[in-house]
Amino acid sequence: MASIDDNTALIVIDVQNDFCPGGALAVGDGHEVVPLINELITQFEHVILTQDWHPEGHSSFASRHEDREPFGSVQMHYGEQTLWPDHCIQGTSGADFHPDLAWDKAQLIIRKGFRPGIDSYSAFFENDRTTPTGLAGYLRERGLSKLVLTGLATDFCVAYSALDAARLGFEVSVVVDASRAIDLNGSLAAAEQQMREAGVVLTRSGAIAA
User: Per the database record, which ranges form the Isochorismatase-like domain (predicted)?
Assistant: First the structure.
């Protein structure tokens, strides 16, 4: 059982309309995480949310690349980049949090992916793996050393965030039943293996206790 203390923060990753059914980049059953996450939020004193926040014409959008389709890939200056449908565009309803998410308790909202030329999956770094969001510094200044992650999608933004957090020395758990995956070409199994190998604990909401 994962315990919650004053050093523990809940980080809710990208529970936004475009990642839920009917959205531009819908994750299967993505909306089903909302009640579980809302229950978790009531148990944590420290709650942080992330929000995908792309400008129009972002370089990770397939529409920016001639003769390219969503879910293909291109080489960017920072490495291979999956191409996505246009999604979570700044100021649109698709970028809003799911309407049933109890996000008002959040003490911090980290917006990511706002730089036009680089995508950002992780809550900690852009996809070049070096440009920081500032979240690690915030957590350290507040003495938050244990992190519990949930949200969308398990195999991309949640996993990237968990792996970076572990690499930075935080104690990390991912609540798998309060997360959903895209599972692109086996990406979920690969992400879960990487997280386990990095020391990330894969747990369930029923095992979280204050």
Answer: 8-203
* Angle, CA of 90, 94 and 96, to the nearest 5°: 75
Q: Which one of the listed residues 18, 86, 112, 155 is annotated catalytic? A: 112
Distance, CA of 170 to CA of 188 (rounded, Å): 22
Encoding tokens for residue 157? 């933004």
Do 18 and 91 meet the contact criterion of CB atoms below 8 Å apart?
no
Tokens of 105: 């308790």
Provide Rg for the chain, Cα atoms: 16
pLDDT digits (tens, 9 = 90+) for 55-80: 999 999 999 999 999 999 999 999 99
Q: How far is CA 139 from the centre of its chain?
A: 16
105 is catalytic: no
The structure's pTM equals 0.95
